[in-house]
Amino acid sequence: MSVVIRTAGEDDRERVVRLLDEAFQDDPVSSWVFPGVEYRRRTHHLLMAAFADAVFADGRIDLTEDASACALWLPFPAEGDVDAGDPGAGDVPARVREAVDPENERVELIARLTEDIHPAGRAHAYLWMIGVAPGRQGEGLGTALIGTVLDRCDREGLPAYLEASSARSKVLYERLGFEFTGRALDLPDGPRMWPMWREPRTR
Fold first, then answer.
1. Cβ 197 vs Cβ 119: under 8 Å
2. CB atoms closer than 10 angstroms to residue 183
3. Between the CA of residue 7 and those of 11, 13, 50, 127, what are the distances in Å?
4. How far apart are CA 32 and CA 185, in angstroms?
5. What is the pLDDT of residues 28-76, one digit of tens each?
6. Which residues contact residue 191 at a Cβ distance below 8 angstroms, ignoring those fewer than 6 apart?
7. Phi/psi at 123 (nearest 5 deg)?
8. pTM for this entry
9. Which residues does 140 contact at the CB level (< 8 Å), separation at least 6?
10. Where are the alpha helices (DSSP H) in 78-118?
11. Strands (E), 10-117
């Protein structure tokens, strides 16, 4: 199956947020951040919007032509967080919590915990999220989306990194050359996440 992929623009924001919201409603990590089905349906989309806006500003969102799948990529410099030394950047996890759901400390906590395990010291491409519409999962859309960026990483000699949020997705990423870093993230009273790193492949 041929998958047509394009770079999403600001006019795609609504469809990207809606897609991420639908794709991650039943995700173990989303279910931990927003416990309870009704609460998650009311609030989850706000976090997906914050993520999308961050990547529109500093990264790249790849979108299938029919808007059934998208991947959010951020360039990560060798020195780590480029905003770390910027006094104007403020406390990003706290700001996200304030914007999304001020009473929910897990919105802030998930950001802090993933920051703590994120590898530093080498520039890499960071796959922050990849979402596939529930009715389209299993068709190879996610693999196609990731593959286009991994091909570029291989050409440029650039590693890639992600956090798998389920055992099922971990297996998929392993097929694409990602390896578990050896340090899992066990969310407090919640699911496990697997940080995964991929060295560029030489041709």
1. yes
2. 10
3. 11, 12, 18, 15
4. 13
5. 999 999 999 999 999 999 999 999 999 999 999 999 999 999 999 999 9
6. 28, 29, 31, 32, 165, 166
7. -65, 140
8. 0.90
9. 1, 3
10. 92-100, 105-117
11. 60-64, 69-76
